[in-house]
């Protein structure tokens, strides 16, 4: 477990939200690995925040399924089992394919423009080869798609799933050959969406999620 950078800014977003975002990013980037303990005293000193603020942030991460309380150990980063992964991708595949179809049906011109920017940002980040930027840009694409589906309930469920998938994204993208395949898959999805081809979009999305699930399960089985 590496130290967190102290980059809390005491303006803009509420302090509690900044702590949540920072810890969530640290987990997604692998600075906190599955099974790592989150010690309140150390985090308060590192982030220079009060214990009540930190505890509120940790409760939110616990609600998102990113950390859990282990008897005799306290809070630690969740370790997902193969069955957890199977269930997460099963639900994600069903809902995200539908979200893409709904985006096609009702997204505004502004949302289409944001999606195009997100696609370009993902490809640019992949060309740079910086893992944290790749994950951030990929998440931006998914978040834009989910926000434009016009269904707040579905968006809320998918957002919760994506928070847990952050625990896995580094695993799947680190697998040999997975990144170029992911870029190709998402580019094909984007092109089908811009062509307003709903059936093709859903087919490609199903294949994309199945591929991501398969690669992740294989990596976990191999202990990577």
List the helices and strands and how they pair.
Layout: H1 15-28, H2 40-47, H3 51-63, E1 67-70, E2 74-77, H4 82-106, H5 109-128, H6 131-147, H7 152-174, H8 178-194, H9 198-221
* Global structural class: mainly alpha
Strand order of the largest sheet: 1-2
What share of the residues lie within helices?
over 70%
Largest beta-sheet characterization = 2 strands, antiparallel
Q: Briefly, what CATH class of the largest domain?
A: Mainly Alpha
Beta-strand content bin: under 5%
The CATH architecture of the largest domain would be: Up-down Bundle
Order of helices and strands: HHHEEHHHHHH
CATH topology of the largest domain: Four Helix Bundle (Hemerythrin (Met), subunit A)
Rounded average pLDDT: 87
Number of contiguous helices: 9
- CATH homologous superfamily caption of the largest domain: GntR ligand-binding domain-like
Shape: globular
Pfam family, one: GntR
Keywords: DNA-binding, Transcription, Transcription regulation
Domain HTH gntR-type: 13-80
Protein name: GntR family transcriptional regulator
